[in-house]
Design brief:
- The protein is of the alpha/beta class and about 250 residues long.
- The chain has one domain (about 10-200): Spore Coat Polysaccharide Biosynthesis Protein SpsA, Chain A (Alpha-Beta Complex).
- It contains eight helices and seven strands, in the order βαββαβαββαβαααα.
- The protein has helices at about 35-60, 95-110, 125-135, 175-185, 205-215, 225-240, 240-245, 245-250, and strands at about 10-20, 60-70, 85-90, 115, 140-150, 155-160, 190-195.
- The protein has a seven-stranded mixed sheet with strand order 3-2-1-4-6-5-7, with helices on both faces.
- The longest helix has 25 residues, at about 35-60.
């Protein structure tokens, strides 16, 4: 991770991300997308989420960065992230280990709190990031969790790297959030839950994203995700709505 001569800001906003390489990211979106299209969409997700995070950080005494994998793929992020975004390599075999190690690494680097955010929710409202930062700035230890509709979480915020929170979790299942809440209860850690949101991982949630971006009634506060919207609009114009997001345009 790069180091700055200036004092660290209060909260690190770490975007958990794989290098956006075709065949390596968003594979559950193939089909309806091709591997190249899925990777291009992933790049749009990263651009939109990093831009959103950077705007929040600029106003909330926080700092945005990407927590990436694999090591050596830093060049894959060239031209995607806002200026000033730092890099931290993920380390650990399991998702739990990578999350815990990233939290520990950032706290050791001088941040007083850490939010780790998935890279699959391009329309995530800014208000949820604001609320997480505000909660972590309050007195007392706690974990902040952003509940995802698939049973996981889109954000975890901590002031300490509580390793127990990441143990005995059935990763990549609908029980991740509930197991995490159980681990927090076992160590007496206060839990603050953010409003629910969703990850875009498969054809069904891609349809939901299209509804979010193109329908007339959008959820309150949803981020506009301009890069994602422009990419999907061009893809729909080129290949037809029924292949990309058939539910939205059926009938």
């Amino acid at each position: 991770m790069s180091h700055s001569a200036t004092p660290k800001k209060r909260c690190a906003l770490g975007l958990m991300a794989k290098a956006p390489l075709a065949g390596e990211v968003k594979t559950r979106l193939v089909p309806p997308l091709t591997s190249a299209q899925a990777a291009a969409l992933n790049i749009c997700f990263l651009r939109d989420m990093a831009t959103n995070i950077a705007a929040v950080a600029a106003e909330c005494r926080a700092e945005g960065l990407v927590v990436y994998t694999p090591i050596g793929a830093e060049a894959a992020f060239d031209g995607i992230l806002p200026e000033g975004f730092e890099f931290l390599a993920q380390r650990g075999e399991s998702l739990g280990a990578r999350l815990c190690n990233a939290t520990a690494d950032l706290l050791k680097d001088g941040y007083s709190s850490v939010c780790l955010i998935n890279s699959d929710s391009p329309t995530l409202p800014r208000s949820m990031l604001d609320r997480a930062i505000e909660s972590l700035a309050s007195d007392g230890d706690r974990v902040v969790l952003g509940a995802a509709d698939d049973g996981g979480y889109y954000l975890i915020g901590l002031k300490q790297a509580h390793r127990n929170l990441f143990e005995r979790i059935a990763w990549s299942t609908a029980d991740v959030l509930s197991h995490t809440v159980e681990r927090a209860a076992e160590i007496g850690l206060e839990v603050e839950m953010l409003p629910r949101w969703y990850d875009v991982d498969d054809a069904e949630t891609l349809n939901r994203l299209c509804e979010e971006l193109f329908a007339t009634h959008r959820q309150d506060g949803a981020y506009s995700a301009p890069h994602t919207r422009a990419f999907l609009a061009a893809l729909i114009e080129k290949e037809g709505a029924r292949r990309v997001c058939p539910k939205l345009f059926s009938g």
